[in-house]
Structures are given as C-alpha cells and as structure tokens.
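Annex B. Sample input.
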Amino acid sequence: MENEKQSITAAELWQQSGLTGEYEAWSFSEASDKLAALVKDGIKTATCSAYDLYEAGDEPLPKAGDYSVILDSGGAAVCIIQTTKVRVCTFAEVTAEHAFKEGEGNRSLAYWRKVHADFLTMELAMLHRTFTDKTKVVCEEFKVVFLPVSA
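Annex B, continued. Sample output.
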C-alpha cells in the first residue's frame, strides 16, 4: 500500500483546527479534487460563482471573515480557508488579477473567460437563465488558514 491518506470529515478538521464560530463545508462543483489540491497548495486563492445562484437559493453572499472547509469529491476535508475579499461585478468586469488568483490553466484572463463562460452557462441553464457578459458574478478571494495534521 502506497502512502494511503486517511480521510477526515469537515467537523473533525474544524475541531482539529481549534477555530471557533460558524463555517460552511463545500466542494468545487467542477474538477473538485484538482481545484481543492490547488487551494491546499496555495495556488488557487480565489473563486467565482453566479450571483443568480445565491439569489435563487435565497442564500447570503460570502463575506470577508467567513470560514469554509474545502472538501474533495469524496466529501473528505482538504483544508480550511477564510474569505478575505468579496466583489460582485459583471462577467466582463472580472480582472486579469482575479483570473490569475483562481490558479487554473495558464492563469490568463482569456483562459478564465473561456472556462467560466462554459461553466456559468451550464449553471444558469439549471435556473432557466441565460449567460451573457453582463451576468453578475461573485468574485471571492481567500487564504488557507488550516491544513490537516499529517498522521
């Protein structure tokens, strides 16, 4: 057996961290293992989602100071992040700096726009809404504040 990792739940990781207060536990909807690894490695320090999803689900927007436990595709906790900045803007207004912080592909704005246009089109279709450059997005920046203790 090659160096098998033991998985840990969000609640176990939260307890292990010693942090207090509320947290959300979630995984990235596309390529969750790959994106969680980028977060854990400090490469991915931002994410983006459709504003309409929060509105449709009557969910509050993330805010600076919020904690999240990032999960892999199997539901195991990978790390804890803390939101540092949230900005709502149109898709067309997303900056090259934000695209770079998302850490995906070649980290360019062109790459970011291509992948996120496809992703947002799919997400909004579930709400029977259409994606355009004027679609509002929630750009979130974060930092890793806790990694699991290695066994």
